[in-house]
Amino acid sequence: MPDRTPTTLPRARTGEVLVLLHRFTRDITRIAAGALGDDLADNRLIMVLTLVHEGPMSPSELCARTGLSRSAMSRLLGTLDEHDLISRQRQSTDGRSVDVSLTRAGRRRLTRLEDELRTYLRTGDQLIPEALALLDVPAVAAAGDSVSDMISVVRHLSEAGARYGEDVAPVADSFGITDTTARFAVCLIEASGTIRPTAIGRELGLASAGVSAVLDRLDSAGLIIREHDTIDHDRRSVVVQPSPLGRRAASAIYTVFARHQHDVIAALALTRSLGEAR
Protein backbone atom coordinates (compact mmCIF):
# COMPACT_ATOMS: atom_id res chain seq x y z
CA MET A 1 0.00 0.00 0.00
CA PRO A 2 1.49 3.38 -0.98
CA ASP A 3 2.60 5.81 1.69
CA ARG A 4 -0.08 8.48 2.03
CA THR A 5 1.88 10.76 4.35
CA PRO A 6 2.00 14.15 2.63
CA THR A 7 5.36 15.71 1.91
CA THR A 8 5.79 19.01 3.70
CA LEU A 9 5.94 21.73 1.07
CA PRO A 10 7.97 24.92 1.32
CA ARG A 11 5.76 27.76 2.57
CA ALA A 12 5.97 29.74 -0.68
CA ARG A 13 5.01 26.71 -2.75
CA THR A 14 2.05 25.94 -0.49
CA GLY A 15 0.87 29.51 -0.98
CA GLU A 16 1.12 29.11 -4.76
CA VAL A 17 -0.85 25.85 -4.63
CA LEU A 18 -3.60 27.45 -2.57
CA VAL A 19 -3.89 30.35 -5.01
CA LEU A 20 -4.26 27.91 -7.92
CA LEU A 21 -6.87 25.99 -5.94
CA HIS A 22 -8.74 29.24 -5.33
CA ARG A 23 -8.90 29.88 -9.08
CA PHE A 24 -10.02 26.29 -9.72
CA THR A 25 -12.63 26.51 -6.94
CA ARG A 26 -13.91 29.77 -8.37
CA ASP A 27 -14.40 28.12 -11.77
CA ILE A 28 -16.12 25.06 -10.27
CA THR A 29 -18.39 27.24 -8.14
CA ARG A 30 -19.41 29.20 -11.23
CA ILE A 31 -20.19 25.96 -13.08
CA ALA A 32 -22.15 24.56 -10.11
CA ALA A 33 -24.13 27.78 -9.75
CA GLY A 34 -25.05 27.66 -13.43
CA ALA A 35 -26.10 24.02 -13.30
CA LEU A 36 -27.75 23.83 -9.88
CA GLY A 37 -28.54 27.43 -8.96
CA ASP A 38 -26.67 30.09 -6.99
CA ASP A 39 -28.03 28.85 -3.65
CA LEU A 40 -26.81 25.29 -4.26
CA ALA A 41 -23.18 25.86 -5.30
CA ASP A 42 -21.94 24.39 -2.02
CA ASN A 43 -19.58 21.43 -1.59
CA ARG A 44 -21.70 19.75 1.07
CA LEU A 45 -24.92 20.00 -0.93
CA ILE A 46 -23.23 18.62 -4.03
CA MET A 47 -21.70 15.81 -1.98
CA VAL A 48 -25.16 14.79 -0.72
CA LEU A 49 -26.64 14.94 -4.22
CA THR A 50 -23.94 12.67 -5.64
CA LEU A 51 -24.43 10.14 -2.84
CA VAL A 52 -28.23 10.05 -3.27
CA HIS A 53 -27.57 9.52 -6.98
CA GLU A 54 -26.36 6.01 -6.04
CA GLY A 55 -29.86 5.19 -4.83
CA PRO A 56 -32.24 5.92 -1.95
CA MET A 57 -30.46 6.50 1.37
CA SER A 58 -31.64 7.29 4.86
CA PRO A 59 -30.39 10.43 6.59
CA SER A 60 -28.44 8.18 8.97
CA GLU A 61 -26.65 6.53 6.05
CA LEU A 62 -25.83 9.93 4.60
CA CYS A 63 -24.42 11.07 7.94
CA ALA A 64 -22.26 7.96 8.10
CA ARG A 65 -20.97 8.44 4.55
CA THR A 66 -20.22 12.15 4.93
CA GLY A 67 -19.24 12.44 8.58
CA LEU A 68 -21.74 15.28 9.03
CA SER A 69 -23.87 15.64 12.13
CA ARG A 70 -27.60 14.89 12.07
CA SER A 71 -28.44 18.57 12.50
CA ALA A 72 -26.14 19.61 9.63
CA MET A 73 -27.58 16.89 7.41
CA SER A 74 -31.12 17.94 8.30
CA ARG A 75 -30.36 21.50 7.18
CA LEU A 76 -28.81 20.32 3.91
CA LEU A 77 -31.73 18.03 3.12
CA GLY A 78 -34.15 20.83 3.92
CA THR A 79 -32.41 23.09 1.40
CA LEU A 80 -32.44 20.41 -1.30
CA ASP A 81 -36.10 19.65 -0.55
CA GLU A 82 -37.04 23.33 -0.87
CA HIS A 83 -35.53 23.35 -4.36
CA ASP A 84 -37.37 20.13 -5.31
CA LEU A 85 -34.11 18.23 -5.91
CA ILE A 86 -34.86 15.40 -3.47
CA SER A 87 -37.92 13.60 -2.17
CA ARG A 88 -38.36 11.82 1.16
CA GLN A 89 -40.51 8.69 1.49
CA ARG A 90 -41.30 6.49 4.47
CA GLN A 91 -39.55 3.14 4.32
CA SER A 92 -41.91 0.25 3.71
CA THR A 93 -40.16 -1.89 6.32
CA ASP A 94 -39.98 0.81 9.00
CA GLY A 95 -42.57 3.57 8.96
CA ARG A 96 -40.47 5.65 11.36
CA SER A 97 -37.58 5.96 8.90
CA VAL A 98 -37.37 7.76 5.58
CA ASP A 99 -35.35 7.29 2.41
CA VAL A 100 -33.98 10.22 0.45
CA SER A 101 -34.10 10.03 -3.37
CA LEU A 102 -33.38 12.36 -6.26
CA THR A 103 -36.39 13.88 -7.97
CA ARG A 104 -36.58 14.18 -11.72
CA ALA A 105 -35.46 17.81 -11.38
CA GLY A 106 -32.55 16.70 -9.17
CA ARG A 107 -31.36 14.16 -11.74
CA ARG A 108 -31.70 16.70 -14.53
CA ARG A 109 -29.63 19.33 -12.73
CA LEU A 110 -26.99 16.84 -11.62
CA THR A 111 -26.65 15.62 -15.21
CA ARG A 112 -26.19 19.22 -16.32
CA LEU A 113 -23.46 19.67 -13.70
CA GLU A 114 -21.73 16.51 -14.98
CA ASP A 115 -21.84 17.69 -18.58
CA GLU A 116 -20.61 21.21 -17.87
CA LEU A 117 -17.83 20.05 -15.57
CA ARG A 118 -16.70 17.44 -18.11
CA THR A 119 -16.54 20.14 -20.78
CA TYR A 120 -14.50 22.37 -18.47
CA LEU A 121 -12.04 19.60 -17.61
CA ARG A 122 -11.51 18.76 -21.28
CA THR A 123 -10.76 22.29 -22.44
CA GLY A 124 -7.11 21.96 -21.53
CA ASP A 125 -7.14 24.29 -18.54
CA GLN A 126 -3.69 24.26 -16.90
CA LEU A 127 -4.68 25.05 -13.30
CA ILE A 128 -4.74 21.41 -12.19
CA PRO A 129 -1.46 20.33 -13.88
CA GLU A 130 0.24 23.40 -12.39
CA ALA A 131 -1.04 22.58 -8.90
CA LEU A 132 0.00 18.92 -9.18
CA ALA A 133 3.44 19.94 -10.44
CA LEU A 134 3.89 22.20 -7.43
CA LEU A 135 2.84 19.29 -5.23
CA ASP A 136 5.48 17.10 -6.96
CA VAL A 137 2.82 14.62 -8.03
CA PRO A 138 2.52 13.03 -11.50
CA ALA A 139 -0.88 14.15 -12.81
CA VAL A 140 -2.55 10.78 -13.30
CA ALA A 141 -0.44 8.54 -11.05
CA ALA A 142 -1.81 10.27 -7.97
CA ALA A 143 -5.33 9.15 -8.67
CA GLY A 144 -4.98 5.76 -7.00
CA ASP A 145 -8.11 3.75 -7.77
CA SER A 146 -9.42 4.23 -11.28
CA VAL A 147 -12.58 6.29 -11.33
CA SER A 148 -14.02 6.99 -14.76
CA ASP A 149 -17.56 8.25 -14.19
CA MET A 150 -18.18 11.93 -13.75
CA ILE A 151 -20.41 11.54 -10.68
CA SER A 152 -17.54 9.94 -8.76
CA VAL A 153 -15.21 12.75 -9.79
CA VAL A 154 -17.74 15.36 -8.66
CA ARG A 155 -18.17 13.55 -5.35
CA HIS A 156 -14.41 13.34 -4.73
CA LEU A 157 -14.02 17.05 -5.46
CA SER A 158 -16.91 18.05 -3.21
CA GLU A 159 -15.81 15.75 -0.37
CA ALA A 160 -12.22 17.04 -0.43
CA GLY A 161 -13.41 20.63 -0.58
CA ALA A 162 -15.99 20.22 2.17
CA ARG A 163 -13.63 18.50 4.59
CA TYR A 164 -10.80 20.97 4.07
CA GLY A 165 -13.24 23.89 4.31
CA GLU A 166 -14.74 22.68 7.58
CA ASP A 167 -11.28 22.08 9.07
CA VAL A 168 -9.71 25.37 7.99
CA ALA A 169 -12.66 27.71 8.68
CA PRO A 170 -12.34 27.81 12.49
CA VAL A 171 -8.57 28.25 12.21
CA ALA A 172 -9.00 31.19 9.85
CA ASP A 173 -11.80 32.59 12.01
CA SER A 174 -9.45 32.71 14.99
CA PHE A 175 -7.36 35.27 13.05
CA GLY A 176 -10.38 37.31 11.98
CA ILE A 177 -10.53 35.80 8.48
CA THR A 178 -14.19 35.09 7.87
CA ASP A 179 -14.45 34.46 4.13
CA THR A 180 -12.77 32.21 1.59
CA THR A 181 -11.36 34.98 -0.61
CA ALA A 182 -9.63 36.66 2.33
CA ARG A 183 -8.20 33.30 3.36
CA PHE A 184 -6.58 32.77 -0.03
CA ALA A 185 -5.50 36.43 -0.17
CA VAL A 186 -3.53 36.23 3.07
CA CYS A 187 -1.74 33.13 1.76
CA LEU A 188 -0.94 34.86 -1.53
CA ILE A 189 0.42 37.93 0.28
CA GLU A 190 2.49 35.79 2.66
CA ALA A 191 3.91 33.71 -0.20
CA SER A 192 4.75 36.84 -2.24
CA GLY A 193 6.33 38.84 0.57
CA THR A 194 5.50 42.11 -1.14
CA ILE A 195 2.78 42.45 -3.76
CA ARG A 196 0.77 45.14 -5.47
CA PRO A 197 -3.05 45.16 -5.24
CA THR A 198 -3.28 44.82 -9.03
CA ALA A 199 -1.36 41.54 -8.82
CA ILE A 200 -3.68 40.30 -6.07
CA GLY A 201 -6.65 41.06 -8.29
CA ARG A 202 -5.08 39.26 -11.22
CA GLU A 203 -4.24 36.14 -9.20
CA LEU A 204 -7.58 35.91 -7.39
CA GLY A 205 -9.80 37.12 -10.22
CA LEU A 206 -11.03 40.22 -8.39
CA ALA A 207 -11.93 43.66 -9.68
CA SER A 208 -10.33 46.71 -8.08
CA ALA A 209 -13.25 47.24 -5.70
CA GLY A 210 -13.12 43.60 -4.63
CA VAL A 211 -9.39 43.80 -3.92
CA SER A 212 -9.88 46.95 -1.84
CA ALA A 213 -12.65 45.31 0.18
CA VAL A 214 -10.52 42.22 0.92
CA LEU A 215 -7.49 44.30 1.88
CA ASP A 216 -9.64 46.46 4.14
CA ARG A 217 -10.82 43.33 5.98
CA LEU A 218 -7.29 41.97 6.33
CA ASP A 219 -6.00 45.37 7.43
CA SER A 220 -8.71 45.65 10.10
CA ALA A 221 -7.69 42.24 11.42
CA GLY A 222 -4.05 43.35 11.63
CA LEU A 223 -2.91 40.79 9.05
CA ILE A 224 -1.31 43.05 6.43
CA ILE A 225 0.71 46.24 6.12
CA ARG A 226 -0.07 48.66 3.30
CA GLU A 227 2.66 51.12 2.34
CA HIS A 228 3.01 53.73 -0.37
CA ASP A 229 5.49 52.69 -3.03
CA THR A 230 8.50 54.92 -2.38
CA ILE A 231 10.36 53.63 -5.44
CA ASP A 232 7.98 55.24 -7.93
CA HIS A 233 7.35 58.25 -5.67
CA ASP A 234 3.64 57.88 -6.41
CA ARG A 235 1.40 58.30 -3.36
CA ARG A 236 -1.36 56.48 -5.25
CA SER A 237 0.81 53.39 -5.69
CA VAL A 238 0.59 50.91 -2.81
CA VAL A 239 2.35 47.67 -1.97
CA VAL A 240 1.06 45.08 0.49
CA GLN A 241 3.08 42.97 2.91
CA PRO A 242 2.06 40.44 5.55
CA SER A 243 2.25 41.55 9.15
CA PRO A 244 3.77 39.17 11.74
CA LEU A 245 0.21 38.13 12.63
CA GLY A 246 -0.56 37.61 8.94
CA ARG A 247 2.43 35.29 8.62
CA ARG A 248 1.19 33.27 11.58
CA ALA A 249 -2.28 33.09 10.06
CA ALA A 250 -0.93 31.84 6.73
CA SER A 251 1.26 29.29 8.52
CA ALA A 252 -1.77 27.96 10.41
CA ILE A 253 -3.70 27.63 7.13
CA TYR A 254 -0.75 25.81 5.53
CA THR A 255 -0.71 23.35 8.44
CA VAL A 256 -4.38 22.53 7.91
CA PHE A 257 -3.83 22.09 4.17
CA ALA A 258 -1.00 19.61 4.85
CA ARG A 259 -3.48 17.38 6.70
CA HIS A 260 -5.78 17.35 3.67
CA GLN A 261 -3.12 17.32 1.00
CA HIS A 262 -3.52 13.68 0.00
CA ASP A 263 -7.29 13.93 -0.48
CA VAL A 264 -6.90 17.11 -2.52
CA ILE A 265 -4.22 15.49 -4.67
CA ALA A 266 -6.40 12.43 -5.29
CA ALA A 267 -9.41 14.53 -6.27
CA LEU A 268 -7.38 16.75 -8.63
CA ALA A 269 -5.63 13.78 -10.22
CA LEU A 270 -8.98 12.12 -10.92
CA THR A 271 -10.03 15.17 -12.92
CA ARG A 272 -6.90 14.89 -15.03
CA SER A 273 -7.46 11.17 -15.59
CA LEU A 274 -11.00 11.86 -16.75
CA GLY A 275 -10.00 14.88 -18.80
CA GLU A 276 -7.46 12.80 -20.73
CA ALA A 277 -10.07 10.15 -21.59
CA ARG A 278 -10.86 11.78 -24.93
Note down, in words, how this protein is organized.
- The structure is a single chain.
- By secondary structure, the chain is mostly helical.
- It has one domain (1-36, 106-278): Winged helix-like DNA-binding domain superfamily/Winged helix DNA-binding domain (Arc Repressor Mutant, subunit A, Orthogonal Bundle).
- Helix content is 62%, strand content 9%.
- It is built from eleven helices and four strands, in the order ααααββααααααββα.
- The chain has helices spanning 11-36, 43-52, 59-66, 70-82, 104-121, 127-134, 150-173, 180-192, 197-204, 208-220, 244-275; strands at residues 86-90, 98-102, 224-229, 234-242.
- The strands form two sheets. Strands 1-2 form a two-stranded antiparallel sheet. A two-stranded antiparallel ribbon has the order 3-4.
- Strand 1 (86-90) and strand 2 form a beta hairpin.
- Helix 1 runs antiparallel to helix 6 (127-134) and helix 1 (11-36) runs antiparallel to helix 8 (180-192).
- The longest helix is centred in the last third of the chain and has 32 residues, at 244-275.
- Residues 1-6 and 139-148 have low confidence and may be disordered.
